[in-house]
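Input record (one chain):
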Amino acid sequence: MAEGICENSLVIVHCGNPREKMWGVVVRLDAIGLVLRGLDLESVEDWIRQERAGSDKLIGPTTFFVPMHRVLRIDLDDDAPVVESYHNRFATACGRDALEALLETSGRDA
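The corresponding structure, as predicted from the sequence alone:
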């Protein structure tokens, strides 16, 4: 397991074959693959707007498995000097913790 990336870490996952990026919370990470509770990266801003507005739940996080042979890179969702992390964007916009919001409908204890 990579240093600092473990269960309940908020991450951005870069995948190949097909190429896609996902954001969410690590449920499990091992040599076989990654179980992530989250969204496609292209949907995150729409989800934040939906949550901020309190509108109908048209999109939301799901739990999915990505086999390790597809994982190109996993980045912690940290702030950069000029870019705010997705979890901080969510907290600022919605006034709640992103980790709790991602896990609240997963059937898991947060």
